[in-house]
Specification:
Blueprint: H1 9-18, E1 26-32, H2 38-44, E2 49-52, E3 58-61, E4 64-68, E5 73-79
Antiparallel strand pairs: 1-5, 2-5, 3-4
Helix pairs in contact: 1-2
Length: 85
Amino acid sequence: MNPPYGRELKLWVKKAATTGLKDKQKLVMLIPSRTDTSYWHDYIFNHAEINFLRGRLKFEVDGISGDSAPFPSAVVIYTGDGDDD
């Protein structure tokens, strides 16, 4: 998922981290790499796989490339723990 990058982002990250994933299920997020925020420390570090993207993302609209994002990005992956209650 690519959640909104505003102030609500921490709520999306918390929901992703606390969602009861079943064995082999994955939840993947594309988010800003703001590792200084509390939600990174509370819900991402030591809870998910993190892949930091090199450079800055650019999005295209109708095939026209826009400006680069003003921040680095990361792909955060949560994986089910095998508890299939």
